[in-house]
Amino acid sequence: PHATYTRTRCWEAAAMGYKPNASNGKVKKNKFPKPSRGKAPGGRIYEVSKQIVECPAGSVAAVIKAALNDPEAPIRRDPRAFTMFSTRCRKQGDWAKCVEIFDAMRAQGVEVNTIVYNATMSACSKGGQWRRALELFAAMPGEDLVRTTITYNVAMGACMRGGDWARTLELFDEMAEVGLERDHVSVNTAMAAAETGGQRERLEALTGA
Fold this sequence. Notes:
Radius of gyration: 18 Å
Order of helices and strands: HEEHHHHHHHHHH
Helix content: 55-70%
Strand order of the largest sheet: 1-2
Strand content: under 5%
Distance between the termini: 28 Å
Largest sheet: 2 strands, antiparallel
Structural class: mainly alpha
């Protein structure tokens, strides 16, 4: 179970652009992996990701539909591949396409899991669509998806971008209620919320935590 949990957190962190550092438990920037060459499966995924990055806004759904239904070399309906597409667009600063990828996955019947939700929420938040990010957060229980520490961290960040420091602290407290680990990102965001809201006692408590 621990190994499975660790692998899941590593995959989640990679989707958000970070990877764990085994030496100190912190996270650091993760470079987009170099694509495989030739006719290897990874090569086809890279081709499609390149098409998505280069296509005009609003055209992602058409690119994905064509790739899924390509009679010669269709891509599989694997959410990990779509997470890679989203990561590539995020690194180009194209948050809107990350959302287009999410919507295309839903339209084409591709599994949309917690990791995909986290990545899309992050894209929405950083792209100024913090309301959409919180809508996705609210929808997860109805989809029978488990919210993770990363999920809450992204939601808290969206609340701060929307100026709702009180909701940020509520989510921080909720993490403890549902038994989730609150990492340094959680604490730092809560501290920023407490400072913004003038919650001096709360800030002092968080500082000493």
